[in-house]
Specification:
The chain is α/β, with parallel strands linked by helices and 542 residues long. 56% of the residues lie in helices and 21% in strands. α10 runs antiparallel to α12.
């Protein structure tokens, strides 16, 4: 056999009836034997924990704190090593060590090569390279989807199916996005209406800090006109004078006359007085203008309305003009995004169409390969089950083309069997017994063991309800599977055990411990010439 990946050693501590046992396995066919209730199934339970199954705290041996299961695998398989390396679990040398601790409070710890790992990853790793065939697997065989997976293994379509399913995932994601966009269309329109209204209000104001400041000044002037005019009248009286007072302008006129009349004394002051006269005339004109000023009610209304809009927008969006301007930028950005959804929907529809056509093309190619391989698989399977004493049985693999794409493509495939010649074909779920299902499944493992990446095969209850020549045939079949990978099988039949390269004998001892009777399962490994001796003992007991 190809011994590039196999279970080398299994340590079981404080696990139900196991106190502390170590089992060394061989690369080929290993049979686990022992009387009913000795603990054979516990070995497989321990292996299932190593493969990522759910742990039950009830298996922790009484009066201990935790159970420990540790498996050491020999590995030179580059695919396995590369996979673990890529996932962050590098392998030094040629050993992969998987350890699980199950505490009595129900918590667990899992390690690969002494590094923490999740049970989910452990299960994923096991599914790739280790195959557990038991009673539950028999029930899986009744599933059409599982039967289709078996056909894909035989037709070497696993990679093509994986690519198809990845594309199908992408296609479904596009469809979900399309549904969400369509669903949000009405909400989008409502939001666009709101944004347009708010933007129109802001754009109508066209706000700026300088504009607001100028409006406030105008408002103050217009609303304080009466007081302004009163003050201007007093200022005008100061300048122009009255009946009792000549005023500043009169006094300036007299002073100018005096200076001009005596140039020899005030020659330097003539220009200064002229400058003062000019300035006072400008002041006089401005005061007269203010006295003549009138308030335009419409202009005041415009100023007040604009200031009111400033206050409204400040209350709505924030306390400053800068906040309003930032809101305007944000609203415009959101509006553009919402308006671009129509473009996004069109692009999405193109992606959906492209993805669907790719899916259809992939599914057609896979379906063609399935059709081509189905007849050959059925023919090989028929030969194998007949060798397992299903005399006269004929199996066929029906392959139908579906009108719609499913997660498995456009193929429906299922086994039908004629177990009694001339009595017609029926689906195996309607006619096959548990023993027949086990033999069909074993036959499939014989055929597929050289077709897939599985390197280790675990068989549980493979001999249920059978014996005699059928047991011998199953033993040969297991030995054939062992040519392509390690086989570990629980059996009570000497006809099967005789083909094993190693027997793992489980005995149950009862001994006193602190004056209390305790049960303990003990392992003994049997190989070489001792195998046939043990097989004869099994036959005598049987």
């Amino acid at each position: 056999m190809d011994a590039s990946f196999y279970l080398k050693n299994l340590i079981i501590q404080n696990f139900a009836t196991f106190k502390n046992q170590s089992i060394t396995f061989k690369p080929g066919f290993n049979a686990i034997i022992g009387e009913t209730g000795s603990g054979k199934s516990l070995v497989l339970d321990a292996l299932q924990l190593i493969l990522g199954s759910r742990a039950d705290k009830k298996i922790v041996r009484r009066e201990t704190d935790f159970s420990l299961i540790e498996a050491t695998f020999f590995c030179e398989d580059k695919k396995v090593l590369s996979y673990l390396e890529a996932e962050g679990f590098p392998v030094e040398g040629h050993e992969i060590i998987i350890k699980r601790l199950i505490y009595k409070n129900g918590t667990t710890k899992t390690y690969i090569n002494h590094l923490n790992c999740t049970v989910t990853f452990l299960a994923s790793f096991a599914r790739r390279y280790i195959d557990l065939v038991g009673q539950f697997e028999n029930q899986k065989l009744l599933s059409e989807s599982y039967q289709l997976q078996l056909l894909d293994h035989y037709a070497r379509q696993q990679e093509a199916v994986s690519k198809f399913q990845a594309e199908l995932k992408t296609y479904k994601q596009y469809k979900r996005e399309q549904e969400e966009l369509i669903k949000s269309h009405s909400l989008r329109e409502q939001r666009l209406d709101y944004l347009n209204f708010q933007l129109q209000e802001i754009e109508q104001l066209n706000p700026s800090s300088q504009d607001e400041e100028d409006l406030l000044k105008k408002k103050n002037i217009m609303l304080n006109l009466e007081r302004t005019q009163k003050l201007c009248f007093q200022a005008k009286a100061c300048l122009d004078g009255d009946e009792n007072n000549s005023g500043i302008m009169g006094q300036l006129k007299f002073l100018t006359h005096l200076v001009n009349k005596n140039p020899d004394l005030f020659q330097e002051q003539v220009g200064l007085l002229a400058e003062v006269d000019d300035r006072l005339n400008i002041l006089q004109t401005e005061i007269k203008n203010k006295l003549n000023m009138e308030v335009d009610p419409q202009e005041l209304e415009v100023v007040l309305d604009r200031l009111d809009l400033y206050q409204k927008l400040k209350r709505k969006f924030g306390g400053t003009v800068e906040t309003i301007l930032q809101i305007q930028v944000d609203f415009l950005k959101e509006k553009n995004q919402l308006e671009s959804q129509d473009v996004s929907l069109n692009e999405l529809e193109e992606k959906i169409s492209s993805s669907y056509h790719l899916l259809l093309k992939q599914a057609e190619t896979i379906h063609a390969a399935r059709v081509k391989s189905a007849k050959d698989l059925a023919s090989e399977l028929t030969k194998k089950v007949r060798h397992l004493k299903m005399n006269g049985a004929t199996l066929k693999l029906e392959v139908e083309k579906l009108d719609e794409i499913t997660e498995h493509g456009i193929t429906r495939s299922y086994f039908i069997a004629e177990t009694n010649p001339g009595e017609g074909y029926f689906k195996i779920k309607d006619i096959a017994s548990g023993g027949e299902l086990s033999r069909i499944l074993l036959s499939l493992r014989q055929i597929l063991s050289s077709h897939d990446s599985i390197s280790i095969f675990l068989f549980d209850e493979i001999d249920t309800g059978i014996g005699g020549e059928t047991g011998t045939a199953i033993g040969r079949a297991l030995a054939e599977v062992a040519l392509h990978g390690q086989v570990i099988a629980i059996t009570h039949l000497p006809q099967i055990a005789q083909f094993a390269e190693l027997l793992v004998l489980i005995n149950k001892d009862i001994h006193n411990e602190d004056k209390n009777a305790r049960t303990e399962s003990v392992v003994r490994e049997i190989f070489g010439k001792m195998i046939q001796k043990e097989v004869k003992a099994m036959a005598q007991l049987g």
